[in-house]
């Protein structure tokens, strides 16, 4: 996983928004059928997003990850990124990854952040404080499904 400082220029912000839109239109893990061992529902009462995250965990590794539900573009794109990023990751590494990802989404100091390339589009969400909870919902729902069950 490549990491680098993440200073956002206007051009990068536009590119990240395009990547988020692409994830929304063709999301990884959306409504895929897996033999899930864990699942949880998540709701963002502020905007009405509803999501179900399901995971297949074998021998301590996330072998498949998916989601379904009715949510906004930011939530769906974030869930898609999550499915791409967390598949084949060991469960004992996930909590730190999710905490870091949520800090990326919530940060207003993107020039100080280092994050994996796949997570960089989420930096754009930090520019829109009202949308942060939309991007965080899939990650918190994953925690509920896998780490709290």
Q: Briefly, what is this?
A:
With 149 residues, the chain is an alpha+beta fold. InterPro entries: NIF_FeS_clus_asmbl_NifU_N (IPR002871).
Domain count, please report it.
1
Order of helices and strands: EHEEEHHEH
Largest sheet strand order:
2-3-4
Number of strands: 5
Overall geometry comes to globular
Q: Please give the largest β-sheet.
A: 3 strands, antiparallel
Helix content: 40-55%
Strand content: 15-25%
- Overall pLDDT, averaged? 86
State Rg: 14 Å
Distance between the termini: 28 Å
Structural class: alpha+beta
Give a structural overview.
This is Iron-sulfur cluster assembly scaffold protein. This protein has four helices and five strands, in the order E-H-E-E-E-H-H-E-H. It has 149 residues and is an alpha+beta fold. It has a single domain, classed as Sufe protein. Chain: A (Alpha-Beta Complex). Helix 1 (10-25) packs across helix 2 (73-86) and helix 2 crosses helix 4. The longest helix is centred in the N-terminal third of the chain and has 16 residues, at 10-25. Residues 1-6 have low confidence and may be disordered.
Strand and helix map with partners:
Elements: E1 3-5, H1 10-25, E2 38-44, E3 49-58, E4 61-70, H2 73-86, H3 91-106, E5 114-116, H4 132-147
Antiparallel strand pairs: 1-5, 2-3, 3-4
InterPro entries: NIF_FeS_clus_asmbl_NifU_N
Domain NIF system FeS cluster assembly NifU N-terminal: 16-102
Organism: Thalassotalea profundi
Main features:
single chain; alpha+beta; Sufe protein. Chain: A; 4 helices; 5 strands; disordered N terminus; Iron-sulfur cluster assembly scaffold protein; NIF_FeS_clus_asmbl_NifU_N
